[in-house]
Amino acid sequence: MLDGILFVAQAEPQQRSFPVKLGERADERRALVCTPKGEGPFAAVVFNHGSIVDGWGWPGASQRGYRLDSVCEKLAAEGYFVFAPIREKYARGKGFMSYEDTYREIVLQAIDHVKTLPEVDNTRVALAGFSMGGLVSFMVALERRDLRAVALLAPAFGRGLLAEAAKDAGRLSAPLLVMVEQSDAPPILRGVAAIEEATRVHGKPLRLVRHNRGGGHELFYDVGYWWDDLAVFLREHLGKR
Fold first, then answer.
1. Which of 9, 49, 126, 157 could bridge across to 149 with cysteines, CB 3.0–4.6 Å?
2. Has residue 3 been placed in a domain?
3. Count: domains in the chain
4. Rounded CA separation 221/217 (Å)
5. What are 84-142's pLDDT values in tens digits?
6. What whole-number percentage of the chain has pLDDT above 70?
7. Is-above-0.85 flag for pTM?
8. 224: domain range?
9. Helix segments in 78-145, DSSP class H
10. Beta bridge partners of 180
11. In a domain, 215, yes or no
């Protein structure tokens, strides 16, 4: 509880700007933010979107079926303050699915920013991401020692970047959840297998959920039957408010 301050729940996700520094250049990015009902500070989830947002922007990606807003609202309904950084300042265009070196730095700075917010209990922060956001989340998780949990939803293979990063799984300091639908593309499945093997070799905790009820990669475009696995995992590691 933060001096009895009551945080009013937002009826829908809000967009906020936050500062970033890329190299020597000061800049900013937007984030989609959802605040739960009740008294804060709240445990927080920094959620990293798929590359469809890099390509089409936000809310452009929502018009193509990707519901980052629904995920944001659902996490807030679970009692978490949600901060979803929009990595690209301007949409890169149809078909853009590349990893950029700036993504990792933007997410690292987004976490630092979230931990300064009065709505947030900075000792209870989790990181999650879908597709390209899952790849970025994994790379960031290798560097942080202040995360309570990390969840990857069908993380992107990134032309081998994920498998290469998985070799450093010994650096993970937070429990890891990985979810994938078994009919997803072969590169996605190879990346998940690489994480599974690397965490086993390094003795790191992994909860791997392979869904088999259909949906492929787009299963995680919106809240669906997969949600309960994420909710249980976050509840276990972020605790109740």
1. 126
2. no
3. 1
4. 8
5. 999 999 999 999 999 999 999 999 999 999 999 999 999 999 999 999 999 999 999 99
6. 95
7. yes
8. 14-238
9. 101-114, 132-141
10. 210
11. yes
